[in-house]
Design brief:
heterotrimer; A alpha/beta (388); B mainly beta (166); C alpha/beta (383); A: 388 residues; alpha/beta; C: alpha/beta; Peroxisomal Thiolase, Chain A, domain 1; two-stranded antiparallel ribbon; 16 helices; globular
Amino acid sequence: MSGNRVAVVGAGMTKFVRRAQETAKELAWEATHLALESCDMTLDDIDAVIIGTAPDAFDAVHMKSEYLSDGCGGWGKPVIRGYVGGGTGVFAPIQGWYHVASGLFDTVLVVCEEKMSSCQPHPQGAFLTIFDHTTERPLEPNLLWIFALEMNAYMNRYGLDKRDIATVAVKNKRNAADHPAALLGDANITLEDILNTEVLAWPVQRGDVSPVTDGAVALVMSAEHVARRVTNKPVWVEGVGWTLDTAYWTNRDLSYPVYVEEAARMAYKMAGITEPRQQIHIAEPYDPFDYKELHHLEGLMLFDKGEAPRAAADGVTQRDGDLPVCPSGGLLGVGNPIAAAGLMKVAEIFWQLRGEAGARQVPGSPKRGLAQAWGDLMQVGTVIVMGV
Amino acid sequence: MKEYVYDSVYLRSKDFEEGNVLFETWDPNARYAWDAGVAIGRYLQGLKAGQLIGRHCPECDRVLIPPRMFCETCFRPTDRWVELEDTGAIITFSRCYVTWDMIRITDPQIPAVIEIDGASPGMGIMHMLSEVDPDEVQIGMRVQAVWKPAAERIGAITDIAYFKPL
Amino acid sequence: MIREVAIVGVGWSGFRPITPDLSYKELMYEAAVQAYEEAGIDPRRDVDSFVTVAEDYNEGTSIFDEYVPDQLGALHRPVQTISGEGIHGLAAAVMQILTGQFDVVVVEGHSKASNILTLPYILAFAFDPVFNRPLAVHPYYVAGMEMLRYQVESGTSHYECACVAAKNRNNALLNPLAGYGAAISAADVMASEPVAEPLTRLECAGHSDGCITLVLAAGETARALTDTPVWVRGIGWANDTPWLESRPWGEARYAQAAAEMVYRTAGIKSPRAEIDFAEIDDTFAYKELQHLEALNLCPPGAAGEWTAAGGTEIGGEFPVNPSGGALGQGHLLDATGLARVLEVVLQLRGQAGQRQIETAEVGLAFGWRGVPTTGGAAVILSN
């Protein structure tokens, strides 16, 4: 990579809860405060702030990053908000990377916050307005539809049934039992528990879906000369990638996330990765729905098309498997405050690569990991590869 | 690692019902009148007339629906309108037991992506299925639009009431 | 800055109060095609990354990012939205090029303000939901309060503020990309109805629809693409506190902080001597004066007198908003700062027609996010 080398040097997060007493700003402050504390920094060390947060409709504030800016440590500093829908949580540290790699800043804060519970009567309502205002919104579409339509296309293409997919929900909710911030961790949950949950939009059942959540996560990212000074365990950004597919989602082949593949190719190229299955030791793909983890693992080229479900069934993606996937517990287990959930995955890779993940630590001292998120109308792929 | 997780406070529904916490409410007054433009304007006119309309890309030789004045693949202007059939095949579908704001319903809504006859392969639009047993719906099933009566059509996607099996 | 960056193509569409003939996608396509044509590039092959500037509630669509790639030729390419001022989007593109990973990056911003039926209510939705919003006052009251405090602290008269509106509306008469040109005087401006005293109607920018697309390229690529690159010399942006309760009402501290960064990155020590002209946010007339002072282009409290004496007219010693600014062109929501940048580019290329400035070698553009925010961004360009 050209430009300055960039490392993650600190991370902090709030608990992920269904409804927080804290305001959005206060949640952002809690995560920011802990991220700074984790690397013994103060706001005086911070040159710029990157805010990631998904639709304004959740927090119910227009120009939301302006409102959030002081909670994110942005007072008197350069503040910018990037936005790629659900992909934002992994895109925010990509922005952190280019802020520092550009040579303009030495140390930046990356803060992602979401307070979905502010949107009443149900945050799902905010998603009505993601559809095309003229050709789709009059049909009163439900966000679940597009996932159900995509999941059905995926299952149909490879002849999968619900049992092949629900293993992901079981794994992630069990993993989350070891995460101190988790909303839905459950060490004893079974496949039958997931399969017996109510049908929301077939083939999507309640147990396939991550919950509505409030929360915030923050990272501190530094240029090499600062990183080496403040920590003996910097986690380097080795590659980044992001792409966007067409808005005409009904014209696309929904069974394969080509946008994830393209983002992964970009990130792998930058990181010099030629054999992802050997060179990636741990992965946090985006899992707002259980099938999405499988879908994304295939898009990331970590498994052949249609093969991820079998690998999951064989235990390959368990925390002690050959390729630990979502050891954090993912969105299905820890919770899904949209942008914050994506950044939680990046924080998890940071802690895992430093050997600081406590009860969730994967065996074998992983050296390189990736986090990936996805969003918009099933069309954004964002990928970050990090290593020690 | 616990030290990097802030002990945020969790509220329960009861806290609100019993008035233990205070809150502000606000209904956003956000109203819009979006210009349909050339392509979608013509599309809506077609719907009012009971006709699905696509647009042809000369470079890719594709027929696109919904129509657009430029092709997103080659980034060239499209060149002509194409009248399409109101029949097609189901690309994918769902049976949905909750409304868009998560109110539970007994009889499922059946959204589907429908590949429209006369457009290029894979060119689908989203619409609803009806007049069908929800358990009988299958990928690949042939369907046809059921139009509202001409007098009730206003130039909107809802001028098609739903699609039903052929 | 560690790498050279230049603007090598610009495109625009609209700049009219209404554009009922085109959808936002068609408006964007028109501007994009023009910019690519000018830069001599094919977006499907030659562009490494795309940045668009948009806010959901200005579009009436949640996650507007979804609807961006098709009309920019950005399918399957890196695309991101900046929910900020247009110049924040430009900053994102500049940073991407500076990393060395990207050679050509496109920035787009647009407005379909005419499609928003309840614009003041949308602005009100940007206020703190607990402390400020329940007061349910028209959001421009913040501008009225700020103007009053600015006048008191700086000793600026209402007449001097009104001179800004008169100058910019008259400048707009010379600009085909301006929907609000008018031969009005400062007296006319002061006599118009009060909006939030002391602010009058003609001191508030009306809105326009429009789109601006810029093509940026790294040094060598830029030289290969065009004989007239416009170089990005420096970039800076900053926020002050979001709280109405604790902001410094008299001065634009966010603009001071953005100025510090833009001059530092550009290596500029004496802004007034080293810069020839500026396009500066004038969403409200007094804002041009407040921003001029914060940007250190004149001493504190001197902008009003300078403006009233004609120093910032097109033929003056330091032209400000020769385009007509937002008061003359119409406010383009998130794209307003990019309209400022567009004019600086046209002036530096000598393509500004009747409003061309004689000596235009270094220009500054500054954008502000509007009430109730304290976010601003600046860029310095040269030919």
